[in-house]
Amino acid sequence: xxxxxxxxxxxxxxxxxxxxxxxxxxxxxxxxxxxxxxxxxxxxxxxxxxxxxxxxxxxxxxxxxxxxxxxxxxxxxxxxxxxxxxxxxxxxxxxxxxxxxxxxxxxxxxxxxxxxxxxxxxxxxxxxxxxxxxxxxxxxxxxxxxxxxxxxxxxxxxxxxxxxxxxxxxxxxxxxxxxxxxxxxxxxxxxxxxxxxxxxxxxxxxxxxxxxxxxxxxxxxxxxxxxxxxxxxxxxxxxxxxxxxxxxxxxxxxxxxxxxxxxxxxxxxxxxxxxxxxxxxxxxxxxxxxxxxxxxxxxxxxxxxxxxxxxxxxxxxxxxxxxxxxxxx
Length: 329
Known about the structure:
329 residues, alpha/beta, S-adenosyl-L-methionine, single chain, eight-stranded mixed β-sheet, two-stranded antiparallel ribbon, METTL16/RlmF, cytoplasm, Rossmann fold, rRNA processing
């Protein structure tokens, strides 16, 4: 096979039905009695929706935060979790799906079995105040994580969560001192990771983020002119939600930088919230020289999303890398 053709291999998985990953713990409707049992404070936020089912008001940031706290405690054993006001409070089922999809990539190199334990290291680019990917990833697979961020307040919050749950040996945090860099100045020479993951800012401005939130309320039938709604139900600081050029510009920068660390990360990856940005991502990956590319579709109800993973190693080199997982400790 010509070198150029081999470099451009792109295995795009078909879009699944509106369902979560089979290993995702959040299948079906939420069991509110069990969640309240795990976290009694949730009880005061539970309401009955127009369909006669128990739910919470997802337009209420306080309710969303307490709901996330209950999910983390009930399903992942996270006893202590909190974030500062105004910081991103992410949807946990979708975040878990991303991790399970990445685990499947590693399983392909491990006889179909997801590798567990501290030999698997993952880099969470922009871990935020919530530290959600390291918390779920370590709970599910006992992987080691390095979380990075440019926001000192976010890192302080994440560190408080890590320490409160005695996860210091599993989750490390590191500040990226250069806001316009992703990997440069962050990764140390010789430092390697099986995975890198990222939830990029997908708006180009605060006004665009606000407009998207209002459109969400309108679609959900919750836009009440008499009620003052929060700007965003999941919160979020500027660096979490928007950047110059929006998602497309950030993804191009992320991919371009990744080429400089081609031998230090087995699989790079990122969420891509806007399907229209996939051609831009493909072009950037071709330019960067990625050898393998995967686009993995995800779905939660009517919400469709996807992540893109890429590697600068061919399959033979990846399998050689994976041999270290089987070596005696």
